[in-house]
């Protein structure tokens, strides 16, 4: 069996160290120079690599999300308005039915009053004669 080698061939890390130091100094400079509000914008730019790729994609995604939300809101609003119109029409039909029933009942009541008056007259006339 072979013993694992303890030596690791690493590329020259001197350049990476310089980049790390420069990056740290830049971050420190940003913290000292930039106010809190603009630091957030700088962090986003740093995360996207300064190219704006993620920001553009995010912007398009936000626009699509807004558009879909807007369309869904319009559909729900249209459905609610249609339902309210349906309820208004149904209520009007029921009111018309009730109104026609009341008119017919009123006619029946007036006919019953006339018949009652005629019966009372007959009873009064027959009661007077006896």
TrEMBL record:
Source organism: Sula dactylatra (Masked booby)
Membrane-spanning ranges: 65-89
Presence of the UniProt keyword Nucleotide-binding in the record: no
Official protein name in the record: LSME1 protein
UniProt cross-references to Pfam families, sorted A to Z: DUF4577 (PF15145)
Keyword Methyltransferase: no
Gene name, Swiss-Prot/TrEMBL: Lsmem1
PANTHER family: LEUCINE-RICH SINGLE-PASS MEMBRANE PROTEIN 1
Protein origin, superkingdom: Eukaryota
Keywords recorded for this protein, A-Z: Membrane, Transmembrane, Transmembrane helix
